[in-house]
Amino acid sequence: MRYVRTSGSVAGTCPAASPAGFGLHPDDLPDGLVVADAAGRVTCFNSAAARITGVRAGDAVGRPLESALPLEDLDGRRWWALTDPYGGLATRTGQPERNLLLPGGRQVLVCARYVRERPGGPVTRVVVQLRGTEARRRTERSHAELIATVAHELRSPLTSVKGFTATLLGKWERFTDDQKRLMLETVDADADRVTRLIAELLDISRIDSGRLEVRRQPLDIAAAVHRHVQAHVRAGQSEDRFVIHVAKEPLPALWADPDKIDQVLGNLLENAVRHGEGTVTIEVAPAVMKARAEGTAVTVSDEGPGIPEESMARVFTRFWRGSKRGGTGLGLYIVKGIVEAHGGTITVGRAPRGGAQFRFTLPVSAPAFLTQA
Q1: Whole-structure pTM over 0.90, yes or no?
Q2: DSSP 309
Q3: Which end of the chain, C or N, has fewer beta carbons within 10 A?
Q4: Are strands 94-101 and 3-5 parallel, antiparallel or unpaired?
Q5: CA-CA distance, 190 to 169, in Å (whole number)?
Q6: What are the C-alpha distances in Å from 21 to residues 12, 25, 35?
Q7: In degrees, to the nearest 5, what angle opens at C-alpha 28 toward C-alphas 22 and 31?
Q8: Of 321, 334, 333, 328, the residue nearest 153 (C-alpha)
Q9: Are 323 and 311 in contact (CB under 8 A)?
Q10: CA distances from residue 204 to 47, 189, 265 in whole angstroms, order as listed
Q11: Average pLDDT over residues 230-248
């Protein structure tokens, strides 16, 4: 019996779902599914397979597998003739996922399983899974952009470090103490820049793999904000440029990773100072939800040109840069990952005076050993 689903834009043709399948129909699958019987003729061609290949399901069912799904490898060889699923070694169980070509040169990811009723017996079914390559291509492009960005950002400080150290080693006696100190301070600053970039790469790797560890400790978020502002003042910023508002009501007890929250505060304040203008305002207050304090909210605002409305959706993505004033474009991506690893949220909007406004909320929480009975 065949089942034809016509509710979607592309109908799939497959056997009806059995009760053992909990009502799941092949057309419900997100990936393409093609099944051929013991004679090598297609018995199932779901709607995702029709969408990926551009072949109507009704035209594919009943045809030989190599005709309904004419695949070639990247060297132009006919795939089914090359792999011979119904012949060859009786111990074969299938083909791992690989990149193959459809007619017209469109790429598709294909894997196959050979079903046998008994070990070593003849193949009774060939089950083929098809996936588009768009997601993989986006990932590969993202990785390529990351490598290019890292190479570009590393080249400048490493060139500086190499140049100054080579100069000092070769002509040490020719320079005054003040000149030597200036060169060594430059080398030290560039070494810090390389260290920060490597730390960013490690953070991105942990965020992408879901392995970002959060070591929660009692945290005084207001004191952390004051500490970061004083660091900017010592670096040459005017103290009048910063305004800190801490709510009068007591803040809820906050358990968070101090080092990672320092990263978040440091990045948001650096962005406000570098890319914004006028007064930088930092507000710390309880985050109120359902009429009770659920956590702590920190808002960082500036009076600069702000972020265009059309760009706000991309602010927390990799490589987004709000201006041409340098940077890797990775900072806000890492900030979002850190906040979410704490169970919090971060948003971006327009400040009351027109600049950018970032607000992150950290929920009330405590280490697991304190919450266990």
Answers
A1: no
A2: G
A3: C
A4: unpaired
A5: 18
A6: 17, 8, 16
A7: 125
A8: 328
A9: no
A10: 36, 23, 18
A11: 92
